[in-house]
Structure formats: C-alpha cells, structure tokens
Automatic annotation (TrEMBL):
Designated name of the protein: VOC family protein
Species the sequence originates in: Aeromonas encheleia
Superkingdom: Bacteria
Length: 184
C-alpha cells in the first residue's frame, strides 16, 4: 500500500489513511472497486472562526474553485496544488464545510465522494445497504450516501469540479451574504 503524506495532514488530520479506511470498509459491502474515482474529500469545521482559518490555510495549498451557500452554510471547494495520493488514487479537491447554524459539529474529515456511472444501478445492485437516497433524483447534482464506521461515502455521477464549473456558468451558485461573518 502506497500512502503519501500531504502538507495539510498536520492541519486536517491524516487524509490518505482516511480515504483508505473508508474504501477498506466499503470493500466487504460492495466488493473491490477496481478503479475508484475519488474526486474529493470533505472536512467539516466546528465553528465559523475555524472555517475562516482553514479557508486561509487551504488557499495556500490550492485554488478556490467556489464558495457558496449550501444547506444554509458556506462551503468552499479547493483544487489542491498537490493532490492527495493513496495507492493508485489521486484526489484532486477538498471541500471545506462550515457548521450549520444552530447545530454543533465535531471538526474533522467527514466524507469522500466517488464517481459512479449510475446511482440507481448502484442502489439496485446492493439492496441490503442502507443508502441515503434523498438526493438520488436531484436535477443538478444527484447523489446517494452510505454511512460507514469511519465516515461517509457519497456517490455522484460526475466529479465535483465539473458540477462547480456548470454552476458557475449558469449562475446557480448562491453567494455567501456579505455580512455572514460579521460579529465573529
């Protein structure tokens, strides 16, 4: 197994082992995925000050693709200058999620996202798995999720960077209100 450390590991935690652990937990449930495409991983901040501090740190290690309001809180996605590497995988992006207002969150690596050809086939081929399918028919970026002991794996039809490009072109990104961080 080839695991490469990443400069952000000291800030966010060991990212490659997180990816490897989730894929290892997935294998007995779904079988070996021969060429998984992990397009990004997500880190959830516990507070807005932590989110802002991590945004500054991630800006030193990548290019901001977008920051917008999703689910009532800001989420920023960066294309890393040095992709995260685990075995033969190269994970190009990281998503940073602010906490949802009024809810407490534990800071840490939260999920990875895999690109698959069909969400409906994925769910149908594994009827015994407790997939979260609430967004399976979303018009813009459908997904299904699967909670595992070490975190969540979400499955999408295309890489997040493609979805972001489309959202930017179409004006679908909801900007973070200019006063959102006031009072911190």
């Amino acid at each position: 197994m080839v695991i490469m450390s990443h400069p952000l590991d000291t800030t966010l935690g060991p990212m490659a082992p997180f990816v490897g652990q989730l894929l290892a937990e997935l294998t007995p449930l779904m079988g070996e995925i021969t060429t998984p495409v992990v397009d990004h991983l997500c880190y959830r901040a516990a507070s807005l000050p932590e989110y802002l501090s991590l945004k500054a740190e991630l800006a030193r290690h990548g290019v901001l693709l977008v920051e917008g309001m999703i689910g009532g809180r800001p989420i920023a996605t960066y294309r890393l200058h040095q992709p995260l590497c685990w075995q033969a995988l190269s994970v190009p992006c990281i998503e940073l999620a602010a906490p949802k207002p009024g809810r407490s969150h534990q800071a840490g690596l939260e999920h990875i996202e895999l690109v698959v050809p069909s969400l409906h086939e994925l769910v149908a081929n594994h009827p015994g798995l407790p997939f979260k399918t609430g967004n399976i028919d979303d018009g813009r970026n459908p997904d299904v999720g699967l909670m595992l002991p070490s975190g969540q794996i979400k499955f999408h039809l295309r890489p997040l960077s493609e979805v972001i490009d489309e959202e930017l072109r179409s004006g679908a990104v909801v900007p973070v209100p200019t006063d959102y961080y006031d009072g911190l």
